[in-house]
Amino acid sequence: MDLTIKQPHLFDPANGVDEIGDLHIKDGRVVTNSSASSEKEIDARGLYLLPGLVDIHSHFREPGMEDAETLETGSMAALKGGYTAVAVMPNTNPPIDNEGVAKFIKEKSEEIGLCRVFPIGTITKGRKGKELSEMIHLYEAGCVGFSDDGNCVEDSSVMRNALEYSQLFDVPIIDHPEDTTLSRNGQMNEGVVSTELGFKGIPDVSESSMVARDILLSRFTKGRLHLAHISTEDSVHYLKDWKTDRITAEVTPHHLLLTEDEVKTFDTNTKMKPPLRKKSDLEVLQKALKEGIIDAVATDHAPHPDYMKEQEYTIAPFGVIGLETAFSVLYTNLVISGKLSLAQLVKSMSFQPARILNLPFGEVRDGGIADFTLIDLDGEWKVDPSNFASKSKNSSFIGWELKGIVTYTIVNGNLTFREGEFLKS
Amino acid sequence: MDEEEMGWALRRLACEVIEDNPHLETIYIIGIRQRGDILAERIRKILKELTHWDIKLGVLDITLYRDDLTAYGPKPIIGSTYFPSPIDGEDVLLVDDVIYTGRTVRAALDEIIDYGRPSRIRLAVMVKRSGRELPIASDYTGVSVDLSKHEEVRVCLKETDGEDSVKIVEVSSESE
Amino acid sequence: MNPNRKDLLGIQDLSKEEIGEILTTAESMEEILKRPIKKAPTLRGITIANLFFEPSTRTLNSFALAEKRLSADSINLSASSSSVLKGETLLDTAKNIEAMEVDIIVIRHSTPGAPHFLANRLDASVVNAGDGCHEHPTQALLDLMTIKKKFSKIKDLEVAIIGDIKHSRVARSLILGLNKMGAKVTVCGPPTLIPQWMDPFESKVEYNFEEVLKGKNILYLLRIQKERQKESFLPSIREYIKSYCLTYEKLKKFASPDVVIMHPGPINRGVEIESRVADSEYSLILNQVITGVAIRMSILYLLSKRKIDGFND
Q: CA nearest C111 in A: which residue?
C-alpha cells in the first residue's frame, strides 16, 4: 500500500457510499485488500472523505496574464478549495485555439504537479465567433471541451456547425449565453437596482434568449451542449421544458447566494458576467440545482489583480475568484440551512462535472482513481483575502464566516495539500 | 446680577453714550448675535426714551467669520446679518454681551469692514471679564469682573433664556 | 447635518432634516452674495480640489465661485489636464491630490459610484458633483431651494419632471429629494426614456405630454441629448420636439396659470423648451443658477473641518 486513510467518513453520493472506514490507495487507485500495511497513514477521524472536486469552469490566466494568476497559483487555489481537477477556459493570450497552447498548459501543469488541469479549446479561431477552431487538433492535444467563454457564439450558423462538428468526439460545446446587442455596455443586472444606481443594465433576456437558441440548436443538431453560468429564471424554465440528455448546465456559487443588491456598495467584486440577479432568480437557481435541472456547480474562477479591480465600477473588469470558497460557502449557506443535501452538493461539484467532461473522476470506489478531498465539516473560518493561495483577491465573499475546512487534498494517490501546505508530487 | 441690577447697568451705559455723543442721531447700533442683538435693542430703547431719537439698529451674525470651526462638529446655525442702511461713514456702536478673549469682536470687525467703511467703531459690552487674547478693549462697560480660566460668565436674557441675570459658573477645563 | 458626515454623495443617504439644514444655511449664504463685498473668510486655509472627469461649465464654475466666496483655496483638475490620460488610475490621481493636504474633493465622473469609491478610501471629504446617471445631489438641493423660495414650502407640491428620465442623474436626485420633502412627482417622456423599473422612486408615470402639463405647480424640463437618436431611443429629435417640446401655446392651453418652469441647464432652445417659455415670467431657470452658488457654499461650509483652539466669548 502507498497510503492508508484511517477512519474517515467515506462519502460518495454517486455510489451511495456513506460510512466510516479505512481507505487504501496503491498506484493512484483505491484497493480493497486491506491486509497489507501502508507506508503512510493519515489519521482522518472526524473528517469527511469526498471525491475530489472537479471544476468545469476556471480561468488560470496563463499564458498571457500571469499577474492575475498562473497555472501554479491557480492549482494551489484549487487544492485549497478541495478541487483535484480543473478545466481551464481558453481566453488566455494567446487563446487555446491551437494545439501548442493546449499542450503547454497540460505539460506545464503536470510539471507543477499539484492538481489536474485540463484545457478547454476555443470554439472559434481567436474566439472571434467566425471560423471553427481546429477541434481535432485541440482534442488530440488534450482539450476536454470547447468554449469561447467570455464571448458568446452569437452567429447561429457557427454555433450550429460547432454542435455538429464536435460530435466527432462527443465533448461538449460550452456556450457563454449572452446576446451582446442587448447587454452592450451593461454593468449589472437590469432592474430596480440598476435604475437606482444609474448603471446601464444587462437584461436577463440577453441571457435567456441565447439559452433558448442554444437549446433549440442542440435539439436540432443532436450536438452536446453545456450552458455556462446560468443565472436567470427564464433560462431555468427553458432548460426544464426542453432539456435533453445532450444538454447540461452549470451555475456558480455567487449566483446561488448573492443578488443585485450587493452592487449598492459599488464594490467591484460584485461585478461579473452574468451579473448578480434578483432574489427570485436566486431562489429558482437553488431549486433547479436541487432538482437536477442544473447539473453542476462551476466556480467561474476569474482572477484579476487588485490594480484592475480597484477602479471605477464601469472600468473594472468582470469576474470574481471562487475556487477557495466554493465548497464552504455552499455547504454553509445551502446544506446547513437545509436547502440542499450534502449528497446533492457533492455530486454537483464532483461526479456531475466530471461526467460532463467525460472524465473518470468524482467517485470513491474500489479500483477508482484516488482523487479525494478530506474536509472538516465543522471547522470554522473567515474569508480573508490575505490568506488566499490565488494570486488575485477579487472574491465576493470576503469577510464571510464559513464552515468546512479542506484539510487534505489527494491527487492520483498523492497527498498534495496538507493543512495549508502544498506538497509537490 | 439680577434683573434690576442689569437694568441699571444698561441705563448707566446708555447715559455714558449720550454724554460722549451730543449728536446722537449719527450713531448706528449693531448687535452681535446671539444676545448682543437683544442688548442692542434694549440700549436703543433706553436711548430713545431719553432723547426721542430713532437710532438705526443692525444685527450681525459672525458665524462665518469665526476662526474655530471644529472638525466634523455640529455647526452653529447661521443667522443672517441685517443692516437697515449702508454703513459707510456711519458712527457704529457695536454691542455684545460679554468680552472675553476678544475673538468675537475681531470677527465682527472683519465682517463689518466687508460691508463698508464706517467712520468709527466703538464697543459696548454688558460684562467685561479678564482673559483678552487680542488687543481689543470695550469703550462702554456694564460691569467688570476678574475671573480665572475655569470660570465662565453666563448672561441670560428674558428673550432667549426666560430671565435676566448674569452668573459666574465653574467650568472644568476639559469640558470645553 | 449629521456631525459624523464626511461626504455628500447623494440625496439617497441624506435625511429630511439634513436637507432642511443645508437649505437654511444656504439662505444665509445667499445673503453674502448680495453684499457689496461678496466674500466671507469662513473657509480660509481650507483647500478644495475640483476633479472634473466630464466636461462641465456651469457646475464647475458654480463650485469654483462658491469656494472663492468663502475664501477657500481651490485647484481645478479637468480630465484633459490631469494624468488620467497618461493611464493613471482614479485612485492614484486622488491619492496624489490628497497628499497635497486637500480637505475637500469635489468630483464629477461618468461612472456611478466613483465619488463613493474615493470617499471609502480617502480622509478628505468628497462631494459628488454628478456621477454618471446616478446622482447629482447639489443640483437637486439647489432645485429644492429654488422651489422653497418660490412657494415657501415643498410639501404637497405637484411636480412634473419631463424628458430623458432614464439617463438623468438630475432626475434621480431630484425625485429622491422631492419624495423626502413630501412633494408629489410625475415623470413624463417617451417610454424608451422612462426606466422600466421606477420602484426606487415614488412617482407616477405619464407618457402623454399634454396630460402631464395639467394641474402642476412645477414643470421641470430635462435636457435632451442629441446622442439618444443614434442609440435608437428616439427616432429623431424632430419627433421629440413634436410631442414633448414645451411651447408657449401648450403652456397657455394646458398648464395652470401660476405654474413655474425649471430646467437644470444648459437649455436646448427649441428642443425641450421654446425660447419664449425659457425667457418668460414663468421661468425660474436663472434663479436656479443663483441658488446654485449658495447651496454649494452651504455644503462646503457644513462639510468643512478646521481645528483652532479658543473662541469662547
A: A314
Give domain A3-47+376-381+385-422's CATH superfamily.
Urease, subunit C, domain 1 (2.30.40.10)
Same domain, yes or no, for C185 and C167? yes
d(CA C23, CA C26): 5
Per-residue pLDDT of chain C (313 residues; tens, 9 = 90+): 777 789 999 999 999 999 999 999 999 899 889 888 888 888 988 999 999 998 888 899 999 999 999 999 999 987 765 555 567 788 888 888 889 989 999 999 999 999 999 999 999 999 999 999 999 999 999 999 999 999 999 999 999 999 999 999 999 999 999 999 999 999 999 999 999 999 889 999 999 999 999 999 999 999 998 777 778 899 999 999 999 999 999 999 999 999 999 999 889 999 999 999 999 999 999 999 989 999 999 999 999 864 333 344 4
- Domain-embedded: residue C1: no
- Distance (Å) of CA A221 to CA A160, A165, A167, A218, B129: 7, 10, 9, 5, 98
C-alpha separations of A85 from A144, A351, A373, A376, A410 in Å: 12, 11, 11, 20, 11
Residues contacting residue B128 through CB under 8 Å, at least 6 positions apart: B98, B99, B138, B141, B142, B143, B144, B145
pLDDT in tens, A41-96: 999 999 999 999 999 999 999 999 999 999 999 999 999 999 999 999 999 999 99
Does some domain include residue B58? yes
C-alpha distances out from residue C291 to A351, C178, C179, C216, Å: 67, 17, 20, 22
> What is the residue range of C231's domain?
137-285
Interchain pair C310, B133: CB under 8 A: yes
0.95 surpassed by pTM: no
Q: Where in chain A is the domain with CATH 2.30.40.10?
A: 3-47+376-381+385-422
To the query of whether residue A97 is one of the catalytic residues in this protein, the response is: no
CB distance C197–A192 less than 8 Å?
yes
C305 to B72: CB separation less than 8 angstroms, yes or no: yes
Do B71 and C305 make contact, defined as CB atoms within 8 angstroms? yes
The answer to whether A87 and A120 have CB atoms below 8 angstroms apart is yes
* Superfamily in which the A52-362 domain is placed by CATH: Metal-dependent hydrolases (3.20.20.140)
Give the nearest chain C residue to A196 (CA atoms).
C200
From chain A residues 262-291, the ones with a CB under 8 A of any chain C CB are 266
B32, B39, B62, B64: which to substitute to probe chain C, counting the most C Cβ within 10 Å?
B64
Among A198, A310, A314, whose Cβ lies nearest the Cβ of C91?
A310
Q: Is A181 on the interface with C (CB under 8 A)?
A: no
From A97, A179, A300, A371, the catalytic residue: A300
Overall domain count for chain C: 2
